[in-house]
Write a structure and sequence with these properties.
The complex is a heterodimer of chains A (about 240) and B (about 250). With about 240 residues, chain A is mainly α. In chain B, α2 runs parallel beside α9 and α7 packs parallel to α11. Classes of the chains: A mainly alpha (about 240), B mainly alpha (about 250). Chains A and B meet through α1, α2, α3, α4 and α6 of A and α1, α2, α4, α5 and α7 of B.
Chain lengths: ~240, ~250
């Protein structure tokens, strides 16, 4: 019992430590620079507690349940030798983990709210827009993981794919409505976070170590950057459909 | 009662959000691999942790991090705080000096605290055979993240379209890629994306939206976004610069 409590205290501490620098900066600015009253202080502190405890329980759950199973499955599928099932798994796990990604859920909602407040959206369209955004980003991550897996199998160099990806983003930006550009650019960084980073890294490193002649150190990396580019391209196109 | 309703609603949404992962795992385990899930009890426990944790986390992001980011942006740009007497000062970029300082500090310190960045930096040190130092990598990346927020806020104030900023940065990165050490490049590309976490993303997004809300002639829904992408890209620039400098020194 004591060891479990100790472990929980340890985890709580490390979850808290992640927030400390942000709290310190905000408190410093409030007290020393702004010298203004802080509205809704109790609600914010309660919310911060939710963030710390929630993040801890969430990550713990991922480590107990999801990551080991995902790794096992990727390994078993690679050993089975069926490219079709391996790629289907890569796509579906990329899609499913992005749909559950907390930063994407939160930011998609916030983008919808901001668009609504500034008359870019009709209230009836809000839920469709937010859900559509999340599905678009998740599709993009799923496809990126498939392409990334394919790349590891074929041994293509990642730099060209990434630079090309950015060139496509820039080019597409000139043909889409202004409303979507900022949201689209942020989509990649937002989508690749708490769940997706470990899932994609494990998949990349796992595959690179199963496939002969691949170096898990160099071939496993780069996948994350690539997975963050495709969502931007997809959301730009989504904006063309939605606002265009 | 309103709070309870909100909790129940978030909980319900979370169940829906998690269901695809459960479906994928069960499908591949049962139909394709045809093996039972090892440690079923532990897995169910972990899954309930995921659902409860995600519910709390989402509520907290909504109640604390978004409002705080937006509040800081509005307070640091309010006319009272800036002691503005003349409306024309609102369009002067120098008026918002405190928001730039705030942005740099929050960008730098949150990256320094990011646990994933620590892990990746250690990996970078191993990969480069000790050429890159773990702590140096963290400082270099955090500097990139701070610069990214500064650049992002400046471009909102100055009304520079985000696509032009992207063109400039991609041009710099492409040039650097030609000269940088091959082993470092793919880590450098990943490192920026890794730096943006569940905690930084909401705060940064809210700062952008809040800032664009007070600048005359800006629309928060259009001009407020783009900061997260800059945090993904600027660390690549600083990382590659660092690796090139080190290689030249050798």
């Amino acid at each position: 019992m004591i060891t479990i409590l100790g472990k929980i205290a340890q985890k709580l501490k490390s979850a808290f430590m992640d927030l400390v620098p942000i709290i310190v900066v905000i408190v410093f600015f409030q007290v020393a620079i702004l010298k203004l009253p802080f509205p809704n202080l109790t609600e914010v502190i309660l919310g911060l507690l939710f963030v710390i405890v929630g993040l801890m329980i969430f990550v713990e759950g991922l480590e107990i349940a999801l990551f080991p199973i995902g790794e096992n499955l990727a390994f078993a599928l690679a050993k089975k030798g069926s490219l079709f099932w391996l790629l289907s798994f890569a796509f579906l796990i990329g899609f499913a983990s992005t749909i559950a990604e907390p930063s994407l859920i939160a930011v998609a909602k916030e983008s919808g709210k901001t668009a609504l407040a500034n008359n870019l959206l009709h209230p009836d369209e809000l839920n469709t827009f937010v859900l559509g955004l999340r599905i678009t980003v998740s599709l993009a991550v799923g496809i990126a993981v498939v392409l990334g897996t394919f790349r590891i199998i074929k041994g293509w160099p990642i730099f060209y794919m990434i630079i090309m990806g950015y060139v496509v983003i820039i080019f597409t930006s000139f043909f889409v409505p202004k409303e979507i550009i900022g949201i689209a650019y942020d989509a990649g960084g937002v989508a690749i976070s708490t769940i997706t980073v470990p899932v994609i890294t494990a998949l990349g490193v796992g595959l690179a170590s199963v496939i002969q002649g691949r170096n898990p150190m160099t071939d496993g990396f780069g996948l994350i950057a690539f997975a963050s580019i495709l969502p931007s391209i997809f959301v730009l196109l989504y904006g063309m459909l939605f606002f265009g | 009662m309103k709070v309870l309703d909100e909790i129940m609603m978030t909980f319900g949404d979370t169940l829906v959000d998690i269901s695809p992962i459960v479906f994928v795992v069960v499908f591949f385990q049962q139909i394709i691999i045809k093996k039972r899930i090892p440690n079923l009890k532990k897995t169910v426990l972990g899954l309930s942790f995921v659902i409860i944790g995600l519910t709390l986390l989402l509520l907290g992001l909504d109640k604390a991090l978004f409002p705080v980011g937006e509040l800081m942006a509005t307070q640091l740009t309010s006319k009272d705080f800036l002691a503005i007497t003349d409306e024309s000062e609102l369009s002067n970029w120098f008026t918002y000096i405190w928001i730039y300082i705030f942005a740099i500090t929050i960008g730098f310190s949150s990256a320094m605290a990011e646990p994933t960045l620590k892990a990746v930096s250690t990996r970078a040190e191993e990969l480069s055979g000790g050429l890159l130092r773990c702590n140096a990598v963290r400082i270099v990346v955090a500097t990139g993240s701070g610069l990214a927020l500064l650049l992002g806020c400046l471009r909102i104030v100055l009304h520079i379209p985000i696509e032009y900023v992207l063109i400039a940065i991609v041009f710099i990165i492409s040039l650097q890629t030609l000269f940088a050490d091959k082993n470092v490049i793919s880590i450098a590309y990943d490192i920026g994306v890794v730096t943006t976490s569940t905690i930084t993303v909401p705060i940064v997004t809210a700062i952008g939206i809040g800032l664009a809300g007070v600048i005359p002639g800006s629309n928060p829904a259009i001009d407020g976004f783009g900061l997260v992408m800059l945090i993904c890209l600027m660390p690549i620039v600083t990382m590659l610069t660092y690796s090139i400098i080190i290689t030249i020194k050798k």
